[in-house]
Amino acid sequence: MRLEPLRRKDIARCVEIEKILFPGDDPWSAWAFQTELDAGNFYLAARPDDSDELVGYAGLAVVGRKRGEYETSVHTIGVVPEAQGQGYGKALLRALLERADELDAPVFLEVRTDNESAIALYERHGFERIGVRKRYYRPSGADAYTMVRPARTRADEVAG
């Protein structure tokens, strides 16, 4: 698999995938993806080694002005159903976490409380549940857990 920066020409495919993955909620529009890229957020595309087909994407927002003040938030991770279970989601998440680690930043995210496979993936990567957002997803009204992975510093890497 290849991970590379998400390109503007990938946005239409991202929107198609959103509609497949989140039919009962409000899938992201092309405008939403465009806004994320325009803001300079860290977005990646996942493709099979032998194809330019987009099979997954992920995005990380960064706020703060300098090291020690940064916070990051996973805004999205999506993988087409036929490619799920093949390591794309894990690879995308790890790439986002590496970027957060470069900034010594904690990572926050929201995940549906009924998305057991995603919750398990996040917990395996050091995330903890810190709260519940009632009726977070619209229009379904599904709840979300807020999760956080504390900042990882260079000292943590040496010690770990």
Q: List unreliable stretches of 5+ residues.
A: none
Class by alpha and beta content: alpha+beta
Tell me the strand percentage band.
25-35%
Instruction: Tell me the strand order in the biggest sheet.
Output: 1-2-3-4-5-7-6
The CATH homologous superfamily name equals Gcn5-related N-acetyltransferase (GNAT)
Largest sheet geometry: 7 strands, mixed
The total beta strand count reads: 7
- The CATH C-level name is Alpha Beta
The helix count comes to 5
Taken in chain order, the helices and strands follow as: EHHEEEHEHEEH
**Termini Cα gap:** 28 Å
- What is the overall silhouette? globular
Q: What is the number of domains? A: 1
Mean pLDDT: 89
CATH fold label: Aminopeptidase
Question: What gyration radius follows from the Cα positions, in whole Å?
Answer: 15 Å
Fraction of helical residues? 25-40%
CATH architectural designation: 3-Layer(aba) Sandwich
Organism: Amycolatopsis samaneae
Domain N-acetyltransferase: 1-152
Keywords: Acyltransferase, Cytoplasm, Ribonucleoprotein, Ribosomal protein, Transferase
InterPro entries: AcTrfase_RimI/Ard1 (IPR006464), Acyl_CoA_acyltransferase (IPR016181), GNAT_dom (IPR000182), YpeA/RimI_acetyltransf (IPR050680)
